[in-house]
Amino acid sequence: METPKTLQAAIQHFSDYENCRKFMVAVRWLDEIIRCPRCNSEKVTYLAKARLYRCYGDHPKQKFSLKVGTVFEDSPIPLEKWLPAVWLIVNCKNGISSYELHRALGVTQKSAWFMLHRIRLAIQSKSFVKLGGPDSAPIEVDETFIGGKARNMHRSKRERLSRNGGMQGGSGKAVVMGMLERGGQVRTQVIPDRKHNITEKIVRELVETGTEVHTDEFQGYYNLKDGYEHKVINHLEGYVRENVHTNGIENFWSLLKRGLGGTYVSVEPFHLFRYVDEQAFRYNNRATKDNPLTDADRFQYALSQIVGKRLTFAEVTGKVGATPF
After folding, report:
1. Is residue 294 part of a domain?
2. Which candidate in 29, 128, 174, 297 could, as Cys together with 293 as Cys, close a disulfide (CB 3.0–4.6 Å)?
3. How many domains does the chain have?
4. 193-243: per-residue pLDDT in tens?
5. The domain boundary residue, chosen from 56, 91, 123
6. Which letter does DSSP use for residue 151 in this model?
7. Rounded to whole angstroms, how far apart are CA atoms 291 and 286?
8. 213 and 279: one domain?
9. Predicted TM-score of the model (pTM)
10. What distance in Å separates the CA atoms of residue 179 and residue 181, rounded to the nearest whole number?
11. Shared domain check, 27 and 111
């Protein structure tokens, strides 16, 4: 399968539908034997003028496109625009806004916004493999607050919150929790609050028992001493004590907030988990000394995740479905 190596090459390569078709076939069917997404039959034929396939099985909806059964399903936007959009979101280090994508691809801003959310669904990583283990690198655990900056509020709202005590700490802000294996992967989760029964439960769900865990002095992690080699760094005294620190996860928060504050500017709490997952994907698929991934590798991996996922406009606008917590 021919994969472009740069953005310029990707735009040129995928401007030809035949290249898009061959690439999608290779992504969806590793043996490149096309099968009907409804009956799994191999008895299909390609209708070139309509850009559709026809299955000879005895069932409704015999015709299907390469988008069926993927995050691209039911989209009138052609693959010639979808594939460069995927390249952009997975390789732009701070993300790409819907307005920038709309200008780059010539689609409406509303369509670009929906496209980006569909791609974010594809690259969400819900791994069941726990971080850590007795011989692993330390796991850094921390949480951060998103939104609610006083200087961005209207004066009347700022004064009202100040009178009610709502300007202190994380009041009125969304909470994101993260666990990072030093030199490895990060796991993130939007949580309703910082209560210890929530933070401790998530650590136990995502980190192997017996792992060395580093946290700050937050009391929500106090009980991790039962089952983990829990080491605490008090940030009032310093940020590093020998090998104990949370600088890795703090660096991830910096990357996340650079995108949220610079590229996306204003993110609704309802959608926050999608933007967090987007940044986690780029971080987990970054180039390292031991794993020198390229932009093409990242793009190809993202495309391998599009099958079997669907996001409707009703879901993304909150008319159906549930919040992440």
Report:
1. no
2. 297
3. 2
4. 888 789 999 999 999 999 999 999 998 898 999 999 999 998 888 899 899
5. 123
6. G
7. 8
8. yes
9. 0.89
10. 7
11. yes
Q: State both tokens at 89.
A: 């979101």
Q: Is the same domain home to 173 and 102?
A: no
Token pair 């959009």 is at which residue?
A: 85
The residue whose two tokens read 């919150």 is: 161
Q: Could you tell me the two tokens for 247?
A: 């600088």
Which tokens go with 208?
Answer: 């192997």
Separation between Cα atoms, residue 304 and residue 286, nearest integer Å: 17
Residue environment code for 201-233, b if the CB has 16+ CB neighbours within 10 A, otherwise e: ebbbebbbeebbbbbbeeebbebbeebbebbbb
SS3 272: helix
Domain of 88 in residue numbering reads as 7-33+67-123
Q: What are the CA-CA distances from residue 226 to residues 1, 57, 212, 285, 313 (Å)?
A: 50, 58, 12, 32, 45
Q: What pairs with residue 56 in β-bridges? A: none
Q: Could you tell me the CA-to-CA distances from 223 to 137, 189, 201 in Å, in that order? A: 21, 20, 10
Q: Name the residue type at position 172.
A: G
| Single residue among 123, 153, 168 that ends a domain in this structure | 123
Is residue 159 domain-shared with residue 235, that is, in the same domain? yes
> Tens digits of per-residue pLDDT, 15-52?
999 999 999 999 999 999 999 999 999 999 999 999 99
